[in-house]
Specification:
single chain, Rossmann fold, four-stranded parallel sheet, 3 helices, 8 strands, 21% helix
């Protein structure tokens, strides 16, 4: 087994917003063997949105290198952005990987999986009030969308389940 966060060293990674350590080093990271967790899982799941589903996209199966690659892909299709904010918990690592692409432009809200989009909409609403911004000051990106995204959110991978 190997810790995907610190590779068993217990050292903090420079891409982390907050210190996140693995269970090897008495923290909250993930210890797993390659192939132990599948990205796509079948079963009966209650999603973060409250919806029920017969499948789940388990982004905890992705490695740090996977997130780096997804961030690179996103940087090539997104307009410029001046700040990156990740939705806890799923969007944090993705957001940290996107920070190296910050330049100017809008505020980027990031999540791993979008089902209804409510988490991103809620954060955008809070930030518009707290920072005196408008909804037009934001763009969003998700690694995976379980369906259609709002116009301001760009999915890297979007599922088409035959529903509009």
């Amino acid at each position: 087994m190997i810790c995907e966060w610190c590779n068993g060293t217990g050292k903090e990674k420079p891409w982390e917003l907050d210190s996140v350590y693995c269970s090897i080093c008495k923290g909250e990271g993930t210890v797993k063997q390659m192939g132990e967790i599948n990205l796509f899982q079948s079963g009966d799941f209650a999603l973060h949105s409250g919806n029920k589903s017969s499948f789940k996209i388990e982004c905890d199966s992705l490695t740090f290198d996977d997130w780096v690659t997804l961030a690179k892909m996103a940087s090539e299709i997104l307009p410029p952005f001046r700040e990156v904010i990740g939705i806890p918990n799923g969007g944090i690592v993705f957001a940290n990987c996107l920070k190296k692409y910050v330049t100017k432009g809008k505020v980027l809200i990031v999540d791993d999986v979008l089902t209804t989009g409510n988490s991103m909409l809620e954060l955008r609403h809070i930030l518009t009030k707290d920072r005196s911004l408008t909804s037009d000051d934001f763009i969003g990106v998700v690694a995976f969308a379980r369906g259609k995204c709002p116009d301001w959110i760009m999915p890297l991978f979007q599922l088409n389940l035959g529903k509009n």
